[in-house]
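Q: Got a minute? One more chain.
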Amino acid sequence: MVERKIATSPDDLPSMEEMLGISGLEAMQRMLRGETVGPPIAGALGYTISSVEDGRVVFSGSPDFKVTNPMGTVHGGWYGTLLDSCMACAVMTKVPKGSTYTTLEYKINILRPIPLGMQIEAIGTAQHVGRSTGIAIGEIRGVEDGKLYATGSTTCIVMKLR
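A: Always. Here it is, folded:
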């Protein structure tokens, strides 16, 4: 199993210059292989990258008590962050060398509560990535039960910097 490290300071992250020198797919593959660190949000919210393909990224995780709302259930922001991450990273796999991207907007639908400690997969699939925009869909599914817990869609802006 590959040991994946999480950034603990800005200095741990690859520089913008490094990122612009490779494609988004290569950047994601390097993270998957443990050659570059993952973002701190992944450590804070308990998820990790588990699969990268051209146009598809999967994150795995399990919510714990620290991501609950005042009612003791998983906060909607956890669902949103996981879906934003997998969908935007799916777009990233299609972004060419010399370009970058960011989320312009996203929408989620929470279908049912995820029990604390349950293993899930957040699957992002790029539907279109052009010169200026990328569109992707996402879903959160239980690993053991296969049930659909949430869905999402995103539009990202793609920016050529070189």
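A: The longest strand covers residues 148-160.
Q: Perfect, thanks.
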